[in-house]
């Protein structure tokens, strides 16, 4: 049974590999393997909801993606969310292009009647790329130290956008930015 759906922004292969390197280092140290186990893919979540109208959302995302260009990204810091999931993440340097991209997507979905929850509203969305989930509190400091050894910033491009069902993660569709063909 699905726990929900998310629209995710995916990276170019080189940037994706840099993020996967962080996942693998944390897994080898037995700090966190959850993202690997749920078969996730490195991404920034743009929107999430417990339920969706799949055909409508696929049309909205396909149309939206065709009008966008790839986005430059630079992950320049490491962070954690103050919740029970003990998520560690790479944080992109805030850019107007990334913030506008997410705001335009949500505006487009709102026009189609999709409710945008507080955490994805323009004034409260926090862009990040998870590198670990369910990190034991006793290993959080060690995980931060491991991530600090990454050569930062990690730069690249956001290249496509997709919808996943979770958990485990199952991609339902994805589209290359600036192209009307499925990725």
Pick out its properties.
183 residues; Cyclic Phosphodiesterase, Chain: A; alpha+beta; RNA ligase/cyclic nucleotide phosphodiesterase family protein; seven-stranded antiparallel beta sheet; 7 strands; single chain; 5 helices; globular
Task: Characterize the structure shown.
This protein is of the alpha+beta class and 183 residues long. The protein has a single domain (4-164), classed as Cyclic phosphodiesterase (Cyclic Phosphodiesterase, Chain: A, Alpha-Beta Complex). The chain has helices at 13-28, 34-37, 54-66, 96-111, 140-148; strands at 4-11, 43-49, 71-80, 88-92, 129-132, 154-166, 170-176. Strands 1, 2, 3, 4, 5, 6 and 7 form a seven-stranded antiparallel sheet that branches. A hairpin with a 3-residue loop joins strand 6 and strand 7 (170-176). It is globular and about 45 Å long. 32% of the residues are buried. It comes from Carya illinoinensis (Pecan). This is RNA ligase/cyclic nucleotide phosphodiesterase family protein. It holds the Pfam family 2_5_RNA_ligase2.
